[in-house]
Amino acid sequence: MSDTCLKFDNLTLGYQGHAAVHHLSGEIRRGTLTAVVGANGSGKSTLMKGIAGILKPISGACISEFSRLAYLPQQSELDRTFPARVIDLVSLGFWQKRGLLGRMTPADKTDLAACLAAVGLTGFEKRPLDSLSGGQMQRALFARAMVQDADLILLDEPFNAVDERTIGDLVVLVKRWVAEGRTVLCVLHDHALVRAHFPRTLLMARTLVGCGATDTVLTVDNLLRARGFQEAWDDNAAWCGDGRSLDDASGQVVAHV
Ligand SMILES: Nc1ncnc2c1ncn2[C@@H]1O[C@H](COP(=O)(O)OP(=O)(O)O)[C@@H](O)[C@H]1O
Ligand SMILES: [Mg+2]
């Protein structure tokens, strides 16, 4: 395997033929921890779905090299009224290894208990999902990601509606995953948290404004540029497909002219 885990090659993603993010080019190295930041509607979740393979590119490519993927969608996309318990949710993480109808082995059960312990949910096995707080739900989702033993982990706003203590605990887990050689991309809004714990940052504003070391990406200049691109985006404009990049744009919309 190469050092590159993900490569975006002039990638455009969208819905019903309309671009939501466009002309992304860049790469993510294996074993790195990257914060994905940007305003609401800047395309962070769209990018996560593109990487996860849920959205197929309108044009360009997302080239990925990993064995197992764990994807935690934004909480707003989860249906917690489904009558399931914590253990049902977490044991879904074995699906990639055992298949949908495969039985858990004794080793799997030990593994599952260890993952629940790691996220502080021992004793919560039989709790219905709709009885969990936002923080407990996020802990359960992290336990499922651990069970999956993925080498690429995508977390979409895992710290939203989560108390400070849980954020601290989950950040420790994320760092442990990276120390184990896994690649993690995490969408979040708190720039102080990003600066303190995330060595790399990908800044979105319907395209990729910057991707690299956090202190070189989260600059005042880049944040202003991001705001300009975001404000200039026209959701109703026709799809251009011309491949022009942000650098041509001088702060103007490039895809939707
Ligand atoms: N399922 C969808 N169908 C149509 N448009 C969508 C869908 N999901 C997101 N969008 C649009 O794509 C753009 C980017 O959204 P999103 O990726 O959710 O941004 P973020 O996660 O940064 O808030 C927004 O204009 C949003 O309305
Ligand atoms: Mg989102």
Structure explained in plain terms:
The chain is of the alpha/beta class and 257 residues long. It has two domains: 157 residues, 3-Layer(aba) Sandwich (Rossmann fold), CATH 3.40.50.300; 72 residues, no CATH class. Helix content is 34%, strand content 23%. The strands form two sheets. It has a six-stranded mixed sheet with strand order 5-6-7-3-8-9, with helices on both faces. A three-stranded antiparallel sheet has the order 2-1-4, with helices on one face. The chain is globular, with a radius of gyration of 19 Å. The N and C termini lie far apart (40 Å). The C terminus is likely disordered. Bound molecules: adenosine-5'-diphosphate (ADP) and magnesium ion. Magnesium ion (MG) binds next to helix 1.
Write a compact overview of the structure shown.
It is built from nine helices and nine strands. With 257 residues, the chain is of the alpha/beta class. Bound molecules: adenosine-5'-diphosphate and magnesium ion.
